[in-house]
Amino acid sequence: MSALQIIGIALCFTIPLVGWALLFKQVWRFSALYRSGQPAARTDNPTARTWTLIKEFLGHTRMSRLPLVALAHWFTALSFLILFATLVNAFFQLIWADFRLPIIGHFPPFEWLIELFAWGGLIGILILIGVRQLAHPRTAAGEAGRRSRFFGSVWWQAYYVEFTILAVTICILLLRTLEAAMLRISHPHESIALHFPLTGWLAGMWNGLSLGAIENVVYLVATIKILVSFAWMITIALQPTMGVAWHRFLAFPNIWFKRESSGRTALGALQPMVRDGEPVTMESLEELGEDDELILGVGKVEDFTWKGLLDFSTCTECGRCQSQCPAWNTDKPLSPKLLMMTLREHANAKAPYLTAAAEQRANVLEQDSALASLLEVPLIGDTGYDITAPLTAYNPHGPDAIIDQDVLWSCTTCGACVEQCPVDIEHVDHIVDMRRYQTLVESAFPNELAGLFKNLEGKGNPWGMGARARLDWAKDLPFEVPVVGTDIENLDGYDYLFWVGCAGAYEDRAKKTTRAVAELLHLADVKFAVLGDGETCTGDSARRAGNEFLFQMLAQQNVEVLGEADASRIVVTCAHCFNTLKNEYPQLGGSYEVLHHTQLLNRLVRDKRLVPVARPAGEPTKSSAKDAASTANTVTYHDPCYLGRHNQVYAPPRELIGTLPGVTLKEMPRHGERSFCCGAGGARMWMEEKLGERINVNRTDEALGTGAQRIAVGCPFCRVMLSDGLTARQSEGRFEQVEVVDIAQMLLAAVRTEG
């Protein structure tokens, strides 16, 4: 044996033992940390979960929005698994330079696979390195480059992972060329092309070296490959918050244990507060004993479920969520990525206490005064951050608060973060859980929400208006609108219950949508009725503001009324009502077939019960309180978050626009699943927007940039926000002929005929 070979064997048969020991120790530590979280049932339908995992990993379906990145990452991810065989082979090559794995080592298809993924991994990581550099904050827009999706990511960790993959793939390719060179010398009649189709052409670089010299190079390269690989293992074992590396392992369980076993994202319904596997209700609170522990929402990191703690560890800091977040893109402190990273760092800092046995916790705190101090730091509070330095709103080690309250309350719950995340992190659920604690336990919520809660509790609507005014929208209609409980006993013999919603009943602009839909249903001879003053708010804003018990009160009242009305099929004009009735009321015993009005109207047009024939003529005229119809030659459509991302309803509104004669749809750059929020969700409709740029103005400017004469919406919340944005621009003397309308208003203009 040469000195080089002896040194290689000595290093490579000792250092890996340290690596494996540290890795298993860290895995056990992770397991203990996750067990310290609250329980969560995530094992239903294991077959579907396994199939989802296979599809998401092998198909990289969650990364397909960035095709080049997805392809590059696919090769690097699969090469990590497939090329493990070359690591095993390298250990034997330290002893026998020409060693090949038994059976498969000389099997051509296996060799082709190895070479394909070695080259694919190398090219893939070079592409990813290039993408990271092109998107670096140093060249990005915003303060200190905050528009970069990598702003706030831990750079040395990313660079280290990239270096490791680059070095390992280069070593594998070099070893393949060395093996080809040895084969030429020892077995000159063997086909190089058969066994080394993608590396044999490089074997000539070793021409002139003797077999012994080539073997020494094999020892050297194999040693480098092994040491680089296990240096990486040791590094990540000592860095449990290194998500850019740990996601290679943790993404698999995180995807398998995702909220929905069907594979859909964690959007739509919010999860109820749970204690011991059962939803927390006012009734269950009354049954608690004096010694029973009660957790309302999340006030400490250990109040998260074990799946939440796993989510934080899995974050790979890719910044897709950050790049799509409406709060972050309008210069507010909320970044879903930074939030996950901070919770990960904080959980790791508290891990020695959380994972210690109960009788050992006092000793742990005595030995670590910093940890003892950390236990006193509130999860949400006032950090005194600088708005121009958003990173200062996140302090995983305190001293004042871990996360600033402005971070928590900037969220619109639009779901863009969840939709974009490649490893299925459930950001919205975690944010609402923290809001629940702030609202129900600390009573620490924005002042404006106090009025909202009071109006919802006392009047059953956010505006605080009387129930009798709920039918004002129907005044002067040329037909009667039946009211359940007044005109009819129940919905027997009727096609649909028309759920008007609070905005549709009280907000002047939204009333036009309500009238338009009612007229269209009447024209299509659809039998419908309304609840009138029997309807109350669905509770969407209360729930997303963290007031779970107020939501339950409103929802239970509505479920009871709907049951008495014998409602089974409901049509709604509000995306938030649509989501709540369809996805959340089943949690309280109310299951219905719920249609958004664009879905129903699109169906009626397809069935020829509504026939659009009229074309826009001359200068477009705007709608009025009595005449809801409005149309123009060009329209752009804004996807409501709670219709689109939360419920995947993208096609019906566009198909409906496509049926309008003479009307051209001009899409905004951000549309469909990448649509930008109007700023109203997550109860933000009722809060002042004091930080950064107004979200609704940002979105309105994008809509106006298309040159369209009409901005079409499918939700009254969106209508209010975009109308306010348009008014701000019209006050500057521009865009006077533009109007924000509901698609139903444009359809109404198209189905009306002269005479």
What does this structure look like?
This protein has 755 residues and is mostly helical. 49% of the residues lie in helices and 5% in strands. It contains 30 helices and twelve strands. The strands form four sheets. The protein has a four-stranded parallel sheet with strand order 6-5-7-8, sandwiched between helices. A four-stranded parallel sheet has the order 10-9-11-12, with helices on both faces. The mean pLDDT is 94.
Compact description:
This protein is mostly helical and 755 residues long.
For this entry, give a set of tags.
mainly alpha, four-stranded parallel beta sheet, 30 helices, globular
Structural class: mainly alpha
Strand order of the largest sheet: 6-5-7-8
| Overall average residue pLDDT | 94
Termini separation comes to: 102 Å
Largest sheet, strands/sense/barrel: 4 strands, parallel
User: Whole-number radius of gyration?
Assistant: 30 Å
Number of distinct helices? 30
Beta-strand portion reads under 5%
Shape: globular
